[in-house]
Amino acid sequence: MSKQLFIEPSKQQVNVEEGETILDAAMRAGFNMPYGCRNGACGACKGRVLAGDVTHREHSASALNKTEEAQGLALFCCAEPVGDVTIECREIMATKDIQIRTMPCRVEKIDRVSDDVAVLSLKLPTNERLQFLAGQYIDIHTKDGRKRSFSLANPPRDDDYLQLHVRLVPGGEFSEYVHNSMREREILRFTGPLGSFFLREDTDKPIIFLASGTGFAPIKSIVEFAQAKGIDRQMILYWGARTLNDLYMPELPSQWQAEYPNFTFIPVLSEPKPEDAWVGRTGFVHEAVLHDFADLSGFQVYACGAPVMVEAAHGSFTGRGLSQDDFFSDAFFLAKDLGKR
Questions:
Q1: What CA–CA distance (Å, rounded) separates 32 from 17?
Q2: What class does CATH assign to 97-194?
Q3: Which bin fits 185, alpha (ψ -120 to 50), beta or left (φ > 0)?
Q4: Spans of all domains in the chain
Q5: To which H or E segment does residue 236 belong?
Q6: pLDDT tens-digit readout, 148-194
Q7: CATH of domain 3-91
Q8: Which sign does the torsion angle of CA 288, 290, 293, 299 carry?
Q9: What is the pTM assigned to this prediction?
Q10: Of 335, 336, 340, 329, whose CA–CA distance to 43 is shortest?
Q11: What CATH number has the domain spanning 207-338?
Q12: Residues near 93 by Cβ (< 8 Å), separated by ≥ 6?
């Protein structure tokens, strides 16, 4: 028997089928709430239960702790209503008219841009295009029926090929397949676009982009979208990596900095090798931002990459005056831990 989900303040009513999460039911009904990982790990879909009860599937305590749960908060991606339930959740209007599709694609090209990062160029069928917002991701369907999530690195205007940045993760079944076995012209299937990590255009606030590793991919999409549209907001990209080699395409943001007066690129290495002869910034990437800005109240922040980085940035940046509503994130969780990415 279905239950009723009431969403405030939009006054929407949605049927929730047995075994369905609040997020799944809302998405099926066309209501676009904020979300990221969809597996209870990032906290992007956290919201308040105003009436009724929910039970939670397994989730990370860092995304929702017991105190927050006792205060009536829930992770909508893994919360199932016990009966009828009323929640408070803002709607992401920008994604409302974008259709989530499952489509085939062909591996057109595999570029190995570093020792452990491959750039996949995926070709859609003739006369097909994927409508998406810069920063969103797709789920690749693997041969064993699982899904692996990868951000789209190309901007929507440049959609002849979908570009994914895939880092080799030891023990990562799909990433090892991409790096060791995948061949051009293979056929894959994917579902997308997904996620609420995209540029908010209803403000002129300056932007701080924070990336670790291949978290650069969706930020590349956003920056190139903004440049093509002529958005002249000030933008600073802090890209964190362990060694110089881990900055797998530093020439691109360096080029942006040279061409666009409103863009600044600050690479940060946490463990530079002696042979790197590194004279730039060192340490944790979020701490570089804290060093540079005593007050973040007038900024928007877009953080993407390792969960520990995203979590540290969120806590420390809001402590420096950043509004909760101006922090947007997409945390990359490993498949071996969470069945994702």
A1: 18
A2: mainly beta
A3: left
A4: 3-91, 97-194, 207-338
A5: strand 235-241
A6: 999 999 999 888 899 999 999 988 889 999 999 999 999 999 999 99
A7: 3.10.20.30
A8: positive
A9: 0.85
A10: 329
A11: 3.40.50.80
A12: 32
